[in-house]
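Same chain as my last thread, 107 residues:
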Amino acid sequence: CPVGSYCPARSTSTTTCVRVGSYCPAGTSIAEGGDCPGGAFCATPAEKEQCPVGSYCPARSTSTTTCVRVGSYCPAGTSIAEGGDCPGGAFCATPAEKEQCPVGSYC
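reply #2:
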């Protein structure tokens, strides 16, 4: 059974998965597929993409949401709105940017 479809036991054809926020990988046998996992987004049940840097994607996401918390860093695959704290030794001008602290500076 191809990606984006499901094939119940003893089926002779494929059926398209349609539940919003789901992902149906190859070999899916139930109509609902599975939830699109946190840290990824599924625009359709046939597509699963990793959430990009600067965004977060909770489970069942169909698109990305921009991280906005000041002082945070949201690496690729972030699943929570807060992201994470900007790590020591770096500064994060935005949640999508992480730069090493310049020599002679404290971050």
